[in-house]
Amino acid sequence: MANTKYAGLTEEQMISAMIEVAIFNEYIPDEDDEEATFEELFTPDCYSGTLDEYFTRPTESEKYIVQQVSERGGEGDGAEMFLTFKITDKETNTVGYLEYSGRYSSWDSSYYDEYYVVLPQEVTVVQYNRIK
């Protein structure tokens, strides 16, 4: 990737936005864990079942819009999986992308164990297809 200057939302702003939008829309933390808080839902170490339920469509608060824009991986036990969100500050029109990565588990709870700021980038892929 070329040396690109990033001028989007910071990681802290994006996590705050996700929490604000969840609270504004009255999402409920995991019902099985009475101690769970909204902040815990969006940490790097979060249960995928809970995070996957949020923001599949554009979801707004007064200040932010959060939408899941990509979900990939997790095609087998232990496989890497990724969940990417686009977060927009409606006041400044500043955008950021936050991606969670983790592991799929077919016998236990899948989980995300880290997140990081990402940028969308169009790429060209060459495939080799059989002709016989």
Describe the structure.
The protein is α+β, with helices and mostly antiparallel strands. The protein has one domain. Helix content is 17%, strand content 32%. The chain contains three helices and six strands; from the N terminus they run H-H-E-H-E-E-E-E-E. Strands 1-6-5-4-3-2 form a six-stranded antiparallel sheet. A hairpin with a 7-residue loop joins strand 5 (94-103) and strand 6 (111-118). 19% of the residues are buried. The mean pLDDT is 83.
Query: Count the helices. How many?
Result: 3
Distance between the termini: 36 Å
Describe the sheet with the most strands: 6 strands, antiparallel
Report the β-strand fraction as a percent range: 25-35%
Give the overall shape, derived from the CA principal axes: globular
Low-confidence stretches: none
- Helix-strand category: alpha+beta
Instruction: Provide the domain count.
Output: 1
> Oligomeric status of the shown chains?
single chain
Strand order of the largest sheet: 1-6-5-4-3-2
Give average pLDDT, whole number. 83
Radius of gyration: 17 Å
SSE arrangement:
Layout lengths: L10 H14 L13 H4 L4 E2 H4 L7 E2 L3 E10 L6 E10 L4 E10 L7 E8 L14
Antiparallel strand pairs: 1-6, 2-3, 3-4, 4-5, 5-6
